[in-house]
Design brief:
The chain is built from nine helices and five strands. It is of the alpha/beta class. The model has no long low-confidence stretch (mean pLDDT 97). The structure holds adenosine-5'-diphosphate.
């Protein structure tokens, strides 16, 4: 199995790139944001739990998120490998992911990070908000809050995976194809 964490701040382009990479490397793409949004739309118990946190640009509590991720792994037990998009976002989630990988006798091969400046992110997300219908993209203050949460709670994971020699940063500004190329260069060497 090859398991990759696609990392970066909100609006870095993780979802867009994951869609190309999953085809190219035959991996299952798990976007925790997408799973939450699906559950909100279908008014499930999980959706109701997640909704108020997401709307404010806050993280959904670890316990809820980790349980959800574990379920997604179970649903895809035959996978060749995974692209994790939006997970882990805290150190507790990273620890839990490590254990879940151990249980499957596999591991995280790499964290591949899209690096993009904050002001570019805000612009991209406001632009996306015009068509995405996402409540958390509609308002600049909520977008800025998500970026703040990223720096306060999530950015430390760079060090976490650097310590394991698994962190690979990639310039996230350029055309979609160029960026796919940069990510592929990293993945091909794993
Ligand atoms: P983006 O990367 O554009 O912020 P996502 O779709 O990945 O968007 O996530 C949207 C929201 O879903 C987050 O702001 C958060 O509220 C919730 N969420 C997604 N993944 C996680 C996670 N791993 N832990 C906690 N909350 C999460």
């Amino acid at each position: 199995m090859t398991n990759i964490i696609l990392f970066g701040p909100p609006g870095a382009g993780k979802g867009t790139q994951a869609n190309f990479l999953k085809e190219k490397y035959n991996l299952v793409h798990i976007s925790t944001g997408d799973v939450f949004r699906y559950n909100i739309k279908n008014e499930t118990q999980l959706g109701n739990l997640a909704k108020s946190f997401m709307a404010k640009g806050k993280l959904v509590p670890d316990e809820i998120t980790i349980d959800m991720l574990s379920n997604e792994l179970d649903k895809n037990s035959g996978a060749n490998g995974f692209i994790f998009d939006g997970f882990p976002r805290t150190e507790a989630q990273a620890e839990a992911l490590g254990h879940l990988m151990d249980d499957k006798d596999t591991n995280i091969a790499a964290m591949v990070a899209l690096e993009v400046d904050d002001e570019v992110l805000v612009k991209r997300l406001l632009e996306r908000g015009k068509t995405s219908g996402r409540a958390d993209d509609a308002e600049e203050s909520i977008i800025r809050n998500r970026i703040k949460v990223y720096y306060n709670e999530t950015a430390i994971l760079k060090k976490y995976y650097q310590k394991q020699n698994k962190y690979h940063g990639v310039d996230g500004v350029g055309s979609i194809e160029e960026i796919t190329e940069r990510l592929s260069d990293v993945i091909d060497k794993l």
